[in-house]
Design goal:
binds ligand F0G, 14 strands, 15 helices
Length: 457
Amino acid sequence: MELPFAESWKIKMVEPIRKSTRAEREQWIKEAHYNVFQLRSEQVYIDLITDSGTGSMTDRQWAGMMMGDESYAGARSFFHMKDMITRLTGFQYVIPTHQGRAAENVLFSYLVKAGDVVPGNSHFDTTKGHIEGRKAIALDCTVDEAKDTQLEVPFKGNVDPKKLEKALQEYGDRIPFIIVTITNNTAGGQPVSMQNLREVRALADRYGKPVVFDSARFAENAYFIKTREEGYAGKTIKEITREMFSLADGMTMSAKKDAIVNMGGFIATNRQDWYEGAKGYCVQFEGYLTYGGMNGRDMEALAIGLDENTEFDNLETRIKQVQYLAKRLDEFGIPYQRPAGGHALFVDATKVLTRVPKEEFPAQTLTIELYLEAGIRGCEIGYILADRDPVTRENRFNGLDLLRLAIPRRVYTNNHMDVIAVALKNVFDRREQITHGVRIAWEAPLMRHFTVQLERL
Ligand code: F0G
């Protein structure tokens, strides 16, 4: 008999978590104005708000923490990190930053100016924020397939080359670079194929434009290339990673995802002009060039994390857990963005809470229901997150309205996945009785989802 699949690690340290009663949760979520960002973590049983900075480090990473060099300038830990990044990506110049959005801030301070247009595949909100905040346009050129949650295609995160070429023709000189997010978080943790990266490169070369990868989950992307794309089954994750980055001019990285550290990020490139142009902003916003807002120990753990998480077994354990949860949801007929993504499942709330009108925010309503059901904290990636149109000030209801269940790396077991699936099934079973959603009582003008105050209808 073939042995079943199991994790490629064993557990050395645990953190107790606590269940709560429905009455407690009713009270807590009310006090939080029905916004899960306002809950205290102790009020949460299973926390799926993000996979960012919430992973569990290995014993090697913890050992590395003890060896961190905290020198202000020229720290040994910086060079460990830089050498690892160069080995994995081929990029020689590395600028450390405290997290991903800081890398965006530093690089875009040099590259983006008012009136520019930056085409890409579903820019992450902070990426978009750093572009729009400079009075430039983040132009989404994701393939249309990404909008149909039930369509099963292997690389749903891809850039649509036709849309990209149209943008290149239309905006010409206004385009400072193309950005490709691997994996595509907003479209559901969906990967981008190597062939697509090559197509983007070819178009970029034809129009004389550089390419940046937003690389937060690049290792998960490499896993999908290995397991789904023809010609890559025999290659190692590190070989695939190297090939991916050979198609880019530079990268921004949130190390809180695929380097499995709690804090950290960087920019890497082979373009000396970018390095020279951006480094001053690192000093101004982040810190000196050999720490950029990180501790020496953070950089040490980051280097080790990158090395370990570009090994197949670790990624396979991770992705198989997400796929395990997907299989459980399939058993119950719960609709989510198919196929299961790398870091999360995105439940299609408008297909679950069909009786809640869009003006009452179905995905946010489902987020609240799941919390009330079992103390599980997901997060709305939908109409509230979409903010209002800057000109008309109307809510933007044209995208997807999803409940994201992000799975932290190496934190929960499949028993927790079972709890999540059954809790969601219980909500799903009573979906016909859920006819009302929420109303906004107070909101910030931008990025309202973090602080919005809601009322239940
Ligand atoms: N790019 C992508 C694709 C991301 O998913 C994130 C963060 C960032 C950039 C910014 O990185 O948080 O280190 O500043 N995503 C988190 C999430 C917050 O929950 O998906 P950061």
